[in-house]
Each structure stands twice: as C-alpha cells, then as structure tokens.
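Need the bound structure for glutathione, inputs here:
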Amino acid sequence: MLPVLYSFRRCPYAIRARMAIHYAGVRVELREILLKSKPPAMLVASPKGTVPVLVLPDGRVLDESCDVMRWGLAIHDPDNWMDPAASREVSRLIAENDGSFKTHLDHYKYADRYPEQTPAHYRAEGEVFLETLEVRLQQRPFLLGYQPGFADVAIFPFVRQFSLVDPAWFSSAPYPELRRWLNGWLNSPLFVAVMEKYPVWQDGAVVRYFGCTADAG
Ligand SMILES: N[C@@H](CCC(=O)N[C@@H](CS)C(=O)NCC(=O)O)C(=O)O
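Answer from helper R.:
Posting the output first, comments after.
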C-alpha cells in the first residue's frame, strides 16, 4: 500500500509538497481534489480540510505542507536541501512567507473581497517580502546560498502566485534577481513534472501514481 497524497494542482502548499516528494523519488498515490468539494475520506483523515494531506500506510497523517516536505526529504535528499546549519534562517523565512506575505498575497489576489484598500496598497504590503528576497538573491543564486534548498522550494510557489496576479507589473517591477530565480524554478524539470494534470479523484477511481522510483513504507 502506498502513501496517499491529497492535492490540489495550483495550491502553493501542495506544489511545495509535491516538489519535495518528486525530488525525493518517493512514489505516492495522488488524489487530485476540488477545494469546493473535498472528498469525505480526506476530511476523515484531516478534518481541518486543507491540502496537502499525506496519509501514510501506518495510519499517520501529515497535514502541514512543510511536514510533508520533511517526510520526503528524510527518505531521500540527494542534493542536501535540508541543511541543518541553515535551519533557523529557513524557518524564519518560511514563517514570514506563510504568515504576513501570504496574507498580503491573498488581499492582493482577491482585492475585490477586501475593498477597504486598493490592490496597489496590498501589493505594496507584499513587496516588503519581495524586497527581502531580492536583496538575498542579489548576493547568491538561491535564497540560502549557492545551491537550491528547502526555503527556495517552500517559498517560490507563493512568489509565482504573486507574479501571476499582474504579470505585466511583475515583469517590470524592480526585482530582476527575483525574476531570475522564479524563472529558474518555473522552467525546472521538477516543477514541470509536478504540474502535470490529474483528473479529479473519486472514490473507487483508477489509482494515479505520482513520484518516481522508491516506494516508502
Ligand atoms: N498550513 C497549511 C496550509 C494549507 C492551505 O491553506 N491550503 C489551502 C489551499 S492553497 C487550502 O486547502 N484551503 C482550504 C480551502 O480553500 O477550503 C499547510 O502548510 O499545508
């Protein structure tokens, strides 16, 4: 029996989880869901109702995307994405990403639902984090150094979402290194692989596998 991953293709949290699983070469059963119609089996495993959710054969459930990433990398981490020396900084960056930046991103993306301020206001709030990333990437090719790592993979799906709200603006915004970094990830075989489209899962449907080589117990 394989681990089961409930996922939603465009969700940035699910993207980071799928990237780590794919990179680790672990095979799982992928169940693509619709956020507006979550399968009861997923809600039984994780009543909070967010994706990704990973259900392991021994019954353990991981329903936080960074936990799913860590689970995959603990099995196989060929390029040392989990650098223990950087773990404090990685946690801090991801906390900022998943906290204030994600809030500003949602306000910017769904500005019509938050009419108190203009989209430009919400965008400017999000840019504080983009500026932090730009400064880092002016000094090194990836967020923590010369090699890609956990923070890059965890954060880039959110910057992708930010860039897609107004691509014309993003393409001329003062973040050239951020664009270089983002484009590198968007064009990576890993990202392309995890964005493959899966039909929405229904109970009893044909099993769809995701990931590559090794099975994980
Ligand atoms: N902290 C969670 C957040 C996951 C999350 O919020 N995912 C969104 C989709 S991008 C979700 O499932 N939202 C529930 C909904 O829209 O009903 C994680 O890191 O896995």
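Comments: Residues 8, 11-13, 35, 49-52, 64-65 surround glutathione (CB under 6 Å). The two ends are 8 Å apart (CA to CA).
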